[in-house]
From TrEMBL, chains A, B:
GO terms for molecular function: peptidyl-tRNA hydrolase activity. This is Peptidyl-tRNA hydrolase. The lineage of its organism: Archaea, Methanobacteriati, Methanobacteriota, Stenosarchaea group, Halobacteria. The gene is pth2. One of its GO terms (cellular component) is cytoplasm. It comes from Halobacterium litoreum. Keywords: Cytoplasm, Hydrolase. The natural substrate for this enzyme may be peptidyl-tRNAs which drop off the ribosome during protein synthesis. Its main location: cytoplasm. It is found in: Cytoplasm.
Length: 112, 112
């Protein structure tokens, strides 16, 4: 079981900003997972992998693909208090779910 | 309500690694919070702030202080699959909790 979080590389997020957006996406997608999946993922060490998304279009494509496959997912849009315009999509999380299912959606993305 | 996550600056984590460790800490501390606190924090937009901790000693001092004040908190120790030695403490999350309570523990730390 794993969760993959894809974050945009094209909007110049600082390191702390990036980490906060990834954490938002992670928690939101986690809450959509079944209790059994949550439990198994945590028991295995709640693996999280952060990868690169080239831009807004790729972010939404990932979310759509995850949805069609029935995987928990969440896109985060920034509240815009700092650095970015309000409503800017920043990151999408896919899973927790079985590794092979997540890889079918995010397997071709590079590690951040 | 907010959650502050302090991550170490002295162990050379890459951006993706940092984000994953922050997300681990965030989720783990979140799960220690009361249901009512969780609900309120999410309703307010689940604010997360990432700040700098100078090293292992400061990380544990933050965790200890949070514990003594009865705030949800969690220290993450890396599984050591990549970049770091197994068991290396990387990040600590404090909250979600009322802003003033969290600030008493992490208020003097710089934004990441």
């Amino acid at each position: 079981m794993k969760q993959v979080i894809a974050a945009r590389t094209d909007i110049g997020m600082g390191q702390g900003k990036l980490a906060a957006q990834v954490a938002h996406a992670s928690l939101k997608a986690y809450e959509y997972a079944d209790e059994d999946v949550k439990r198994r993922w945590k028991a295995e060490g709640q693996q999280k992998v952060v990868v690169k998304a080239s831009g807004e279009r790729e972010l939404y494509a990932i979310a759509e693909e995850a949805k069609q496959r029935g995987l928990p997912s969440a896109v985060i849009e920034d509240a815009g208090r700092t650095q970015l315009e309000p409503g800017t999509p920043t990151a999408v999380a896919v899973g927790p779910a079985p590794d092979a299912d997540v890889d079918q959606v995010t397997g071709d993305l590079s590690l951040f």
